[in-house]
Amino acid sequence: ETGVTQSPTHLIKTRGQQVTLRCSSQSGHNTVSWYQQALGQGPQFIFQYYREEENGRGNFPPRFSGLQFPNYSSELNVNALELDDSALYLCASSLGTEDTGELFFGEGSRLTVL
Amino acid sequence: AQSVTQLGSHVSVSEGALVLLRCNYSSSVPPYLFWYVQYPNQGLQLLLKYTSAATLVKGINGFEAEFKKSETSFHLTKPSAHMSDAAEYFCAVSVYSSASKIIFGSGTRLSIRP
Protein backbone atom coordinates (compact mmCIF):
# COMPACT_ATOMS: atom_id res chain seq x y z
CA GLU A 1 0.00 0.00 0.00
CA THR A 2 1.47 3.34 -1.08
CA GLY A 3 1.17 6.16 1.42
CA VAL A 4 0.64 9.87 0.81
CA THR A 5 3.61 11.52 -0.85
CA GLN A 6 4.22 15.24 -1.23
CA SER A 7 6.69 17.24 -3.30
CA PRO A 8 8.81 19.21 -2.97
CA THR A 9 9.77 18.66 0.67
CA HIS A 10 11.33 22.11 1.05
CA LEU A 11 11.29 25.24 -1.05
CA ILE A 12 12.12 28.91 -0.78
CA LYS A 13 10.27 31.64 -2.65
CA THR A 14 10.18 35.43 -2.54
CA ARG A 15 7.18 37.67 -1.98
CA GLY A 16 4.92 37.98 -5.00
CA GLN A 17 5.98 34.71 -6.57
CA GLN A 18 3.74 31.73 -7.22
CA VAL A 19 4.17 28.18 -5.94
CA THR A 20 2.71 24.77 -6.80
CA LEU A 21 2.77 21.92 -4.31
CA ARG A 22 1.93 18.36 -5.29
CA CYS A 23 0.37 15.43 -3.50
CA SER A 24 -0.20 11.80 -4.41
CA SER A 25 -2.98 10.26 -2.36
CA GLN A 26 -2.88 6.86 -0.73
CA SER A 27 -3.89 4.03 -3.00
CA GLY A 28 -7.68 3.70 -3.17
CA HIS A 29 -8.40 7.13 -1.66
CA ASN A 30 -10.51 9.57 -3.67
CA THR A 31 -10.49 12.58 -1.35
CA VAL A 32 -7.63 14.99 -0.71
CA SER A 33 -7.56 17.71 1.93
CA TRP A 34 -4.93 20.43 2.25
CA TYR A 35 -3.85 22.04 5.51
CA GLN A 36 -1.51 24.88 6.39
CA GLN A 37 0.51 24.49 9.60
CA ALA A 38 2.32 27.61 10.72
CA LEU A 39 5.19 27.23 13.16
CA GLY A 40 3.94 26.28 16.61
CA GLN A 41 0.30 26.01 15.54
CA GLY A 42 -2.16 23.33 14.60
CA PRO A 43 -3.03 22.58 10.98
CA GLN A 44 -5.58 24.95 9.43
CA PHE A 45 -7.98 23.55 6.82
CA ILE A 46 -7.50 25.12 3.37
CA PHE A 47 -9.80 23.05 1.14
CA GLN A 48 -10.82 19.55 0.19
CA TYR A 49 -11.19 17.89 -3.21
CA TYR A 50 -13.46 14.93 -3.89
CA ARG A 51 -13.57 13.33 -7.32
CA GLU A 52 -11.94 16.37 -8.94
CA GLU A 53 -14.37 18.92 -7.42
CA GLU A 54 -13.76 21.30 -4.53
CA ASN A 55 -15.80 20.03 -1.58
CA GLY A 56 -15.41 22.63 1.11
CA ARG A 57 -13.03 25.49 1.81
CA GLY A 58 -11.61 27.06 4.92
CA ASN A 59 -10.92 30.72 5.61
CA PHE A 60 -8.25 31.24 2.95
CA PRO A 61 -8.23 33.87 0.16
CA PRO A 62 -8.81 33.00 -3.51
CA ARG A 63 -5.09 33.16 -4.25
CA PHE A 64 -5.01 29.70 -2.67
CA SER A 65 -6.37 27.35 -5.33
CA GLY A 66 -6.22 23.68 -6.09
CA LEU A 67 -6.80 20.88 -8.51
CA GLN A 68 -7.49 17.20 -8.31
CA PHE A 69 -6.69 14.92 -11.21
CA PRO A 70 -8.46 11.76 -12.43
CA ASN A 71 -5.91 9.61 -10.57
CA TYR A 72 -6.89 11.57 -7.40
CA SER A 73 -3.52 13.26 -7.04
CA SER A 74 -3.76 16.94 -6.24
CA GLU A 75 -2.03 20.30 -6.50
CA LEU A 76 -2.12 23.33 -4.24
CA ASN A 77 -1.31 26.63 -5.94
CA VAL A 78 -0.59 29.85 -4.11
CA ASN A 79 -0.29 33.10 -6.05
CA ALA A 80 1.19 36.43 -4.95
CA LEU A 81 3.05 34.88 -2.03
CA GLU A 82 3.17 36.80 1.25
CA LEU A 83 5.58 36.40 4.15
CA ASP A 84 2.78 34.90 6.27
CA ASP A 85 2.41 32.07 3.77
CA SER A 86 5.59 30.55 5.22
CA ALA A 87 4.42 27.27 6.73
CA LEU A 88 4.31 23.50 6.44
CA TYR A 89 1.66 22.50 3.91
CA LEU A 90 0.13 19.12 4.63
CA CYS A 91 -1.83 16.97 2.28
CA ALA A 92 -4.13 14.27 3.64
CA SER A 93 -6.10 11.65 1.78
CA SER A 94 -9.17 9.70 2.78
CA LEU A 95 -11.80 7.45 1.27
CA GLY A 96 -14.96 9.44 0.60
CA THR A 97 -16.05 12.61 2.36
CA GLU A 98 -18.22 11.21 5.12
CA ASP A 99 -16.09 8.50 6.59
CA THR A 100 -15.17 8.43 10.25
CA GLY A 101 -12.65 11.15 9.67
CA GLU A 102 -9.41 9.26 9.52
CA LEU A 103 -7.02 11.28 7.42
CA PHE A 104 -3.74 9.88 6.16
CA PHE A 105 -1.13 12.62 6.05
CA GLY A 106 1.97 13.11 3.98
CA GLU A 107 5.12 14.53 5.54
CA GLY A 108 4.43 17.97 4.15
CA SER A 109 6.06 20.63 2.01
CA ARG A 110 7.84 23.32 3.98
CA LEU A 111 7.53 26.68 2.25
CA THR A 112 9.67 29.66 3.22
CA VAL A 113 8.75 33.05 1.76
CA LEU A 114 11.46 35.70 1.92
CA ALA B 1 -19.18 26.15 14.65
CA GLN B 2 -17.12 23.40 16.17
CA SER B 3 -13.72 23.95 17.78
CA VAL B 4 -11.28 22.40 20.22
CA THR B 5 -9.13 23.94 22.93
CA GLN B 6 -6.02 22.23 24.16
CA LEU B 7 -4.95 23.24 27.65
CA GLY B 8 -1.19 23.56 27.93
CA SER B 9 1.08 24.08 24.97
CA HIS B 10 3.83 22.05 26.64
CA VAL B 11 3.64 19.14 29.06
CA SER B 12 6.69 17.46 30.59
CA VAL B 13 6.55 14.16 32.48
CA SER B 14 9.08 11.65 33.74
CA GLU B 15 9.53 8.33 32.00
CA GLY B 16 7.07 5.87 33.54
CA ALA B 17 4.73 8.60 34.82
CA LEU B 18 1.13 9.18 33.83
CA VAL B 19 0.54 11.23 30.69
CA LEU B 20 -2.52 13.51 30.66
CA LEU B 21 -3.15 15.87 27.74
CA ARG B 22 -6.28 17.99 28.00
CA CYS B 23 -8.77 18.83 25.28
CA ASN B 24 -12.16 20.54 25.46
CA TYR B 25 -14.47 20.75 22.49
CA SER B 26 -17.27 23.01 21.36
CA SER B 27 -19.94 21.66 19.04
CA SER B 28 -23.66 22.22 18.67
CA VAL B 29 -24.18 18.70 17.37
CA PRO B 30 -22.67 15.35 18.42
CA PRO B 31 -19.06 15.52 17.27
CA TYR B 32 -16.47 13.11 16.09
CA LEU B 33 -13.29 13.63 18.11
CA PHE B 34 -9.75 12.62 17.36
CA TRP B 35 -6.24 12.68 18.70
CA TYR B 36 -3.38 12.86 16.21
CA VAL B 37 0.35 12.69 16.91
CA GLN B 38 3.11 14.43 14.97
CA TYR B 39 6.71 13.34 15.34
CA PRO B 40 9.47 15.79 14.32
CA ASN B 41 9.60 16.44 10.57
CA GLN B 42 6.71 14.10 9.89
CA GLY B 43 3.03 14.35 9.02
CA LEU B 44 0.22 13.60 11.46
CA GLN B 45 -0.81 10.08 12.45
CA LEU B 46 -4.16 9.10 13.96
CA LEU B 47 -3.87 7.89 17.58
CA LEU B 48 -7.56 7.29 18.26
CA LYS B 49 -11.06 8.49 17.41
CA TYR B 50 -14.46 8.82 19.07
CA THR B 51 -17.48 8.32 16.82
CA SER B 52 -20.38 8.06 19.31
CA ALA B 53 -19.86 4.43 20.24
CA ALA B 54 -18.03 3.61 23.51
CA THR B 55 -17.06 6.70 25.51
CA LEU B 56 -13.69 5.21 26.46
CA VAL B 57 -11.61 4.89 23.33
CA LYS B 58 -8.38 2.92 23.10
CA GLY B 59 -5.78 3.85 20.54
CA ILE B 60 -2.32 2.88 19.42
CA ASN B 61 0.83 2.90 21.56
CA GLY B 62 -1.13 2.44 24.81
CA PHE B 63 -3.04 5.74 24.63
CA GLU B 64 -6.71 6.12 25.46
CA ALA B 65 -9.21 8.95 25.74
CA GLU B 66 -12.57 9.34 27.44
CA PHE B 67 -15.44 11.32 25.94
CA LYS B 68 -17.29 13.25 28.68
CA LYS B 69 -20.29 15.10 27.29
CA SER B 70 -21.10 16.80 30.60
CA GLU B 71 -17.61 18.32 30.68
CA THR B 72 -17.24 18.70 26.88
CA SER B 73 -13.86 17.05 27.27
CA PHE B 74 -11.82 14.42 25.47
CA HIS B 75 -8.59 14.14 27.44
CA LEU B 76 -5.78 11.83 26.28
CA THR B 77 -4.04 9.57 28.80
CA LYS B 78 -1.35 6.93 28.97
CA PRO B 79 -0.54 5.14 32.24
CA SER B 80 3.23 5.02 31.77
CA ALA B 81 5.18 7.39 29.54
CA HIS B 82 7.96 6.13 27.29
CA MET B 83 10.76 8.18 25.78
CA SER B 84 9.35 7.43 22.32
CA ASP B 85 6.13 9.26 23.23
CA ALA B 86 7.86 12.64 22.91
CA ALA B 87 5.98 14.42 20.11
CA GLU B 88 3.33 17.03 19.34
CA TYR B 89 -0.24 15.94 20.03
CA PHE B 90 -3.30 17.47 18.39
CA CYS B 91 -6.91 17.17 19.43
CA ALA B 92 -9.39 17.55 16.57
CA VAL B 93 -13.13 17.67 15.94
CA SER B 94 -15.49 17.20 13.04
CA VAL B 95 -19.23 16.81 12.54
CA TYR B 96 -20.88 13.96 10.70
CA SER B 97 -21.96 15.99 7.68
CA SER B 98 -18.39 16.87 6.82
CA ALA B 99 -16.40 14.24 8.60
CA SER B 100 -13.20 14.78 6.71
CA LYS B 101 -13.08 18.55 7.29
CA ILE B 102 -11.35 18.16 10.58
CA ILE B 103 -10.63 21.17 12.81
CA PHE B 104 -7.42 20.89 14.83
CA GLY B 105 -6.41 22.40 18.13
CA SER B 106 -3.18 24.31 18.58
CA GLY B 107 -1.30 21.28 19.86
CA THR B 108 0.50 20.16 23.01
CA ARG B 109 4.17 19.31 22.94
CA LEU B 110 4.93 16.32 25.18
CA SER B 111 8.45 16.01 26.58
CA ILE B 112 9.65 12.95 28.51
CA ARG B 113 12.31 13.32 31.20
CA PRO B 114 14.65 10.34 31.75
Textual characterization of the structure:
The complex is a heterodimer of chains A (114) and B (114). Chain A is mostly beta strands and 114 residues long. Chain A contains no helices and 11 strands. Chain A has strands at residues 5-7, 10-13, 19-24, 31-37, 44-50, 53-57, 64-68, 74-78, 87-94, 104-105, 109-113. Chain A is globular, with a radius of gyration of 13 Å. Chain B has 114 residues and is mainly β. Helix content of chain B is 0%, strand content 56%. In chain B, the strands form 2 sheets. In chain B, strands 2, 4, 5, 9, 10 and 11 form a 6-stranded mixed β-sheet that branches. A 5-stranded antiparallel β-sheet of chain B has the order 1-3-8-7-6, with no helix packed on it. Classes of the chains: A mainly beta (114), B mainly beta (114). Chains A and B meet through strand 4, strand 5 and strand 9 of A and strand 5 and strand 10 of B.
Mean pLDDT figure of chain B: 90
Helix content of chain B: under 10%
Largest Cβ-defined interface: A-B, 28 and 25 residues
Average pLDDT across residues of chain A? 91
> What is the number of E strands of chain B?
11
SSE order of chain A, one letter for each helix or strand: EEEEEEEEEEE
Spans where pLDDT lies below 50 across 5 or more residues of chain B: none
